[in-house]
Amino acid sequence: MSPQHRRRTLVVAAVAVALLGVAVLLSLLVGARAIPAAEVWRALIAPDAANPDHLVVLTQRVPRTVIGLCAGAALALAGTVMQGLTRNPFADPGLLGVNAGASVAVLAAITLFGLVTPTGFVWFAFVGAALAAVLVAIVGGRGPNGGDPAKLALTGAAVTAGLMAVTFLILTTNIHALDVYRYWSVGGLTARGLDAVALVLPALLIGAILALASARGLDLIALGTATAAGLGQDVARSRILGIIAAVLLCGGATAIAGPLVFLGLVVPHALRGLVGGSYARLLALGIPLGAALLLLADVIGRVIALPGEIQAGIVVAFLGAPLLVALVLQPRKVAL
């Protein structure tokens, strides 16, 4: 890495960390209820159960902040891994059918078990996401050219289409399921507590470790399968490692925050234009940037429609679509 490139990477890292710090502060300070910064600080260090301001901070803003940190970082990591596995800078974590699998599982929880709260959906969403991704990996890895990026993408599209058909069938025949499901399906950081985070945190941590460990393998896969194999890389092992990481990360994030779109696609794509194609850098920088962007989207959703709120998933989609178009239209791109 040249000195100029190293300096640019350090600047981007500093900006990402600073942006994350600002996002965390805003997430704790901003909301429909005006709470002084000093009172927020007291709620964190010396909480008073009889103080309504403290209750708002501890039961609403702190859980939303923690969920935003975990889900944003996880989706950025998952998106980076998927783009590396498929050698496609526009690949999304949903390519493995994760969102569709989680949706069907949540509907099963509603219709078969009568669950009505997002916290109750956590394990169903996680297991559904994981099963869908495993199905895509198994089917996409069979036969000639098993594990080929194009075959994996087509398999993911086919599985997603089938699962979405099941989703629409249930929604059009069960009004109760539609009423409960439509809130979760938007994606957001509300109505979940720290207990939901605790359930999926081990999966998120293991997924993050596996994703960071797969950086070298993704760098070699970017050179082409034959080249990577010639350099001594076990391509099949790298793909399995990456898929497991993406399943754990995206499944866990979807379970606690719903099916958020664009975040896992935009973050690595934006970073690639700033720091190059090294997956060690993309993965490391994606953690603070992904978390910051999701928290900022949640903060924006709190203030643009007072006294109500707009879910973070809607804000991410509105901001992510034009940003992605702008990135695509940039004349300078770093090839995978």
TrEMBL record:
The keyword Ribosomal protein does not apply. The keyword Transport applies. Coiled coil: none annotated. The chain crosses the membrane at residues 62-82, 94-115, 121-140, 152-176, 196-215, 240-267, 279-300, 312-330. Keywords: Cell membrane, Membrane, Transmembrane, Transmembrane helix, Transport. It is found in: Cell membrane. It is a multi-pass membrane protein. InterPro entries: ABC_BtuC-like, ABC_transptr_permease_BtuC. Pfam families: FecCD. Belongs to the binding-protein-dependent transport system permease family. FecCD subfamily. PANTHER family: FE(3+) DICITRATE TRANSPORT SYSTEM PERMEASE PROTEIN FECC-RELATED, FERRIC ENTEROBACTIN TRANSPORT SYSTEM PERMEASE PROTEIN. This is Iron chelate uptake ABC transporter family permease subunit. It comes from Microbacterium flavum.
